[in-house]
Amino acid sequence: MEHELTWEPGPGTPASARFRVQIYHFRKKAWVPVQACVNLTMGEWCNLTNSVKDIYLDFATRVQAFSPTQESPWSFSTVFNPLMDTVWGPPELSLSSCGNCLVLGLTPPSSIGLHPYLNRLFFHDFDVQVTRTRDNTQFSLRVSSREYVIDYLEPGVEYCVTATALIYYKHSVPSDPLCAYTSAQPSSKGVIPPPDNVKITSFNMGLVLEWDPAQNFTNDKLTYTAEYL
Which residue numbers delimit the Fibronectin type-III domain (predicted)? Predict the structure, then answer.
C-alpha cells in the first residue's frame, strides 16, 4: 500500500521548472496540497502514501508545473481506489530442510502503508508452486498459514518454491523462486560393520579371542580393539 504518483513534463517545459501536487479526497470534496510534493524538480516523483489514510475511499490527484513567473494548467490523474487498484507485492519466503520435507515460511511484503491487521487479513491465503529442479516436475498447494511443511518429497533433491498471495480483489505479484535441498538419506558408505564369528578358545588355561572380518568388507588398514568384563 505504497502509492507513488509519476508524470512526464509537457513539451517545452524548461529544465528549471518545479512541480506541485494536490490530492482530492471525495469525502472532503476539496483539493489539498501534498506537503512533501509542493516544490519538486524535474524527474522527481511524489510519494502519496502518507496522504492516503483510508484505503477504502477513492481519491484523485493533479500536478502543476510552475516557475517564478508562470504556472501551467493542472494535469489530472484518473480516480484511484487504493484497495482495488493497488498492485500487491510478493510475499517474503523462507525455506529450510526437515528430512524428506521442506518448511516454508510466508510473510506479507514489507509495507509502510498497511495496518498490521489488514496485512494479516489480505495476506491470509497463498498459492504455492513447488518445482523439482531435476526434471521440472511441479505441483501446487493452497496454504493458509504463515508456516507450512511441504512433505512427502524425495530426499536429497533440490526443490524451488514460489508463492502468490490470493487476494479477493486480485492476485499479487508472485515471489521469486527460493530453492533448497531436502535432507539426504543416511548413507552406509564409510560405516564399518562389526566382526563376525567372535569366539573364545582355551588351551591349557590360555584364552584366545578370535573373530573373522565382516563378509564383503575388506580394508587392510583396519585395527581392532578388544575389551572384557
Answer: 87-185
Residues 42/9, Cβ–Cβ less than 8 Å: yes
Q: Mind listing the domains of the chain with CATH numbers?
A: 4-85 (2.60.40.10), 92-181 (2.60.40.10)
Question: Which has the closest alpha carbon to 34: 16, 18, 47?
Answer: 47
pLDDT digits (tens, 9 = 90+) for 57-67: 899 999 999 99
Per-residue b or e along 219-229, where b marks 16 or more CB atoms closer than 10 Å to that residue's CB: eeeeeeeeeee
Starting at the edge strand found earlier in the chain, the sheet holding 18-25 runs 30-33, 18-25, 59-66, 75-76
- pLDDT (average), residues 219-224: 70
Query: In 10 A of CB 40, how many CB atoms?
Result: 19
All 3 cell numbers of residue 49? 502514501
pLDDT of residue 206: 78
**Dist CA 82 CA 85 (whole Å):** 6
Phi, psi at 117, each rounded to 5°: -65, -40
Amino acid occupying residue 224: Y
